[in-house]
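Practice problem 4.
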């Protein structure tokens, strides 16, 4: 739910690796598309071409592609009730500037649509849905024994954090975003919020600038007692995984998930600096179907196409549900009913609801990877919302995906 948090200009500048005081622009100006142009008119071009905004590292596909056959029940004419009216997929895609929608049932395509100039070979940026990918890589590192225990302190894997506020914070509380460390993921016009400092660290083009920022932070509450959403904390988690495995995050992703899950094309991950650390809280770009294959891999509890287990047994249900009071349903934000797992947002548990047990990755401007184990449904939504977060669009997205899961029951 980074949507409630960030001013659209600030987050896009951060994603492009610019300082918060970067080039001024106006929504009223219409310029020729460029990789750094974040006006609504050119958002889609920008989201498709993030490799032109920062250094990247490829996420290499493996030799065996997972087929995604067509499902017997096509959802091209799907409709859903909302606010006393019946809405259609076309309505949704037009209103919310949708770049792609994919719905899988048991690994078969029931719906695949593109918009905003995209097609099957387009790559689209993940924004914070990358957080759920980094969390999954932590699960792989735990299964491999590279991470000994989720209750190990950060400093076991990152010795430079000894003496910092993160020295004794557990990997588990980093996964939960319950470190107790101060972080304001919000736009501050005075430029004092931590996310503005993160944008400046990303723009510095200095190896280690992001981790240096994280070492400088202070504590506000005891770890484990309060949820506090932090992109910087996922960057820290990515550094832990990389240090534990001895591999760049993109390479470990390729070895343990991208190849074994049968992706059809290379993806890429944006870096802090050339040849530097991946920006683990954002910055993955991939094709729509490969985001779907990632969701399917998680749905299948981390078992590769060849039957190898990549994630610990039961990781899906551990990572995909709240496991602490601080991350429980309705505890994250005032009036917000979702809970939080290990960098997955969790829809409320409600017997009889089509979303019961479902969880989702979320990214600003309307990016979703939806995983519903009970219904055996995975869905991906790409968007270019005009604002960083639209509460109405989030609710309508879940209405659309709920209608899709209902139509595919049986």
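Answer key:
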């Amino acid at each position: 739910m980074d949507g409630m948090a960030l001013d659209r200009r600030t987050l896009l500048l951060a994603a492009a690796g610019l300082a918060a005081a970067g080039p001024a622009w106006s929504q009223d100006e219409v310029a020729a598309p460029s990789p750094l142009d974040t006006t609504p008119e050119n958002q889609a071009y920008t989201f498709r071409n993030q490799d032109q905004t920062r250094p990247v590292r490829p996420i290499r596909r493996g030799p065996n592609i997972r087929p995604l056959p067509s499902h017997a029940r096509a959802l091209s004419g799907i409709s859903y009730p909302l606010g006393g009216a019946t809405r259609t997929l076309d309505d949704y895609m037009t209103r919310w500037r949708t770049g792609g929608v994919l719905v899988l049932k048991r690994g078969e395509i029931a719906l695949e649509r593109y918009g905003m100039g995209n097609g099957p070979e387009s790559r689209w940026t993940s924004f914070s849905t990358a957080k759920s990918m980094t969390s999954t890589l932590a699960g792989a590192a735990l299964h491999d024994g590279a991470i000994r225990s989720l209750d190990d302190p950060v400093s076991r894997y990152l010795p430079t954090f000894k003496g910092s506020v993160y020295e004794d914070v557990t990997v588990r509380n980093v996964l939960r975003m319950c470190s107790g460390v101060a972080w304001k993921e919000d736009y501050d016009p005075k430029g004092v919020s931590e996310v503005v400092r993160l944008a400046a660290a990303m723009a510095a083009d200095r190896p280690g600038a992001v981790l240096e920022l994280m070492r400088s932070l202070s504590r506000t509450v005891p770890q484990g007692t309060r949820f506090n959403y932090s992109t910087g904390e996922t960057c820290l988690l990515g550094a832990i995984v990389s240090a534990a495995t001895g591999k760049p995050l993109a390479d470990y992703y390729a070895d343990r998930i991208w190849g074994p899950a049968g992706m059809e094309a290379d993806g890429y991950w944006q870096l802090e600096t050339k040849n530097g650390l991946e920006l683990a809280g954002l910055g993955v770009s991939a094709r729509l179907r490969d985001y779907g294959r990632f969701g399917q891999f998680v749905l299948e509890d981390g078992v590769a196409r060849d039957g190898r287990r990549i994630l610990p047994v039961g990781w899906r249900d551990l990572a995909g549900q709240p496991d602490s009071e601080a991350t429980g349903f309705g505890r994250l934000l005032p009036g917000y009913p979702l809970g939080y797992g290990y960098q997955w947002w969790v829809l409320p548990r409600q017997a009889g609801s089509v979303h019961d047990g479902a969880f989702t990755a979320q990214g600003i401007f309307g990016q979703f990877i939806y995983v519903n184990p009970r219904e055996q449904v995975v869905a991906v939504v790409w968007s270019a919302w005009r604002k960083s977060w639209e509460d109405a669009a989030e609710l309508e997205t879940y209405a659309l995906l709920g209608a899709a899961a209902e139509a595919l029951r049986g």
